[in-house]
Each structure stands twice: as structure tokens, then as C-alpha cells.
């Protein structure tokens, strides 16, 4: 893509950061994490959720979950009950969910 645009990879990252507010890598973390809500509703196995959403292992999934929510997936499930459909709907109004680069 950088060759087509005639710019460096670093410059493209900088433009992305200015437009979106986070780095491309962090943006990908957010998108991957958002998918976990859908799978937390469908399965009891945190290992299955981690694998389905592309985490290296359950520990990495839990670390990201704690980073974004401040709690563990198990504690989140106990405290929240059913997850709001706003997080699950593919037509979510979330800017990050619907972002297309």
C-alpha cells in the first residue's frame, strides 16, 4: 500500500494516528478485543474465546481484557449478566466497529 501511495510506512502510520487517534497496532487490538464480547455470550470457555479471537493464549486475552475493562473476563461475566446488544450487533453505532480504512 505504501508503494502505491508513494509514502513511507512510518508516514502512513503517522497519518493513520492523526485520523483515528491511535496507532494502527493499537487499533487492531481494539477491534480484536471488541470481538471477544460476541464470543463471551456464546461460550463458557475463555480458552475458546481467546483462540477464536486470535489471541496467542488465554493469558494474553486476559491481559488485554484487564487493560480495556479494568477487570477479568470471569469477574466481568459475574458482575454484568447478559452483554448489551449494542456490543454484539454488527450494525453497532460504535465508530471503531464500523470504521473502514
Written description of the protein model:
This protein is an all-alpha fold. The protein has a single domain (24-98), classed as Arc Repressor Mutant, subunit A, CATH 1.10.10. Helices cover 69% and strands 0% of the residues. It is built from 8 helices and no strands. Helix 4 crosses helix 5 (58-69). The longest helix has 19 residues, at 24-42. It is elongated and about 50 Å long. It starts with a helix and ends with a helix.
Question: How is this fold's topology laid out?
Answer:
Layout: H1 2-5, H2 9-20, H3 24-42, H4 46-52, H5 58-69, H6 73-80, H7 85-88, H8 95-98
Helix pairs in contact: 4-5
Per CATH, the class reads: Mainly Alpha
User: Helical segment tally?
Assistant: 8
Which sequence of SSEs, written as H and E, runs from N to C? HHHHHHHH
- Low-confidence stretches are none
C-alpha termini separation: 12 Å
Q: Tell me which CATH architecture applies here.
A: Orthogonal Bundle
User: Can you tell me the overall shape?
Assistant: elongated
Q: Characterize the biggest β-sheet.
A: none
The share of residues in extended strands comes to under 5%
The structural domain count equals: 1
Radius of gyration: 16 Å
Instruction: Supply the helix-strand structural class.
Output: mainly alpha
CATH topology: Arc Repressor Mutant, subunit A
Average pLDDT rating:
82
Helical proportion? Answer: 55-70%
The tally of strands reads 0
In terms of quaternary structure, the protein is: single chain
Give the key terms.
Arc Repressor Mutant, subunit A, 101 residues, mainly alpha
